[in-house]
Amino acid sequence: MFDLVGKWPLYSEGLEHRRRRLAAAWKAVSRRAIDAEMIRMADEIARSIAERNSANVDVYSDLALPYARHLAGEILGIHPEDREAAFLIGEEVLAFISKVDGTEIAAASAAEAIRRFGSLRMGSELSTQSRRPSPSLDNDELIAVQLQILTGTYRPVAVGLATAILAIGCDKRLQAIASNPDFVPSIVDECLRFSTPFHIAARRAASDFVVDGLHVSQNDFVKLQLLTANHDASIYANPSTFDPWRWPHSSQHLAFGFGAHACIGSSIATRAIARAIEVFSNLIPSFETILCEYRPTFGMTTFERALISLD
């Protein structure tokens, strides 16, 4: 299990990282098609919520998570009947990475989940490639790439989107401007900075150096605190305040990491969140009083700041 996760582009280095990252590139995904599909899905979710005629809507489980899961399913071309199974597998893999259940238990569960993953029906070029020999990646590497895309899409997009919708619901100024396409990118940047769904980046030191009196040797394994960086008061004024008006004047956030290991799907994720904000913001007036009573409760794990509940 450790070997497979070690083949994720996220944890790869050098030529292996470059080879796996190129295989994960979004060649098979038409961004225009994804945009159209995500707008369609957001509209469908919005209609479903409206038909319920209820103010009791959880912005994470009712809006953001179904939307984000659909995005991941579309990117990987997962057959609709297999998508629920795929996301259950994703949760087991994330539990292993986060070590929330104890390493041995989580590893055994994740290993069994990965065996099931190989039987799922997928239709994208990237997914079907794993069913045949590849001159660049072997079967385990391709499955590793698929799993990174799966888990790296639906949970971060769901957390970021839920944070944005919640913030809009609690701020009259945001409600007045949230559907403005020119301002939506600022809301997206701020929800990603504020939530930083994956808050730790793993790297190896390229050379010896000293940080605050601590000596780090070349090739030491280092964890970078992206969440802390995104809430650095010396960089962002009032970092614990959701303030999209700070963009585009603030420094670039680090929710997607940086450098050679920066998230390869960042552009698709930001576009997907933006499309959803444009649609879901129109729902907010009917839920306004309910949403303003909600506050995010964050469950902290090793690699995520996951939005577990809104209460």
Keyword list:
globular, 13 helices, 311 residues, two-stranded antiparallel sheet, two-stranded antiparallel ribbon, 6 strands, 9% strand, mainly alpha
In short:
The protein has helices at residues 2-5, 14-23, 31-52, 59-76, 83-98, 103-117, 125-129, 139-169, 172-177, 184-195, 226-230, 266-280, 284-291, and strands at residues 200-204, 209-211, 214-216, 221-225, 296-300, 305-310. The protein is mainly alpha-helical and 311 residues long.
Explain what this protein looks like in three dimensions.
The chain is mainly alpha-helical and 311 residues long. The chain is 54% helix and 9% strand. It has helices at residues 2-5, 14-23, 31-52, 59-76, 83-98, 103-117, 125-129, 139-169, 172-177, 184-195, 226-230, 266-280, 284-291, and strands spanning 200-204, 209-211, 214-216, 221-225, 296-300, 305-310. α3 packs parallel to α12 (266-280), α5 packs antiparallel against α6 and α10 (184-195) crosses α12. Residues 125-134 and 288-294 have low confidence and may be disordered.
Side-by-side strand order of the widest sheet: 1-4
What is the CA-atom radius of gyration, in angstroms? Answer: 20 Å
- The separation of the N and C termini measures 36 Å
* Poorly predicted residue ranges: 125-134, 288-294
Largest sheet: 2 strands, antiparallel
Shape: globular
Oligomer: single chain
Strand percent estimate: 5-15%
Number of helices: 13
Element-by-element helix/strand order: HHHHHHHHHHEEEEHHHEE
How much helix is in the residues? Answer: 40-55%
Mean pLDDT: 80
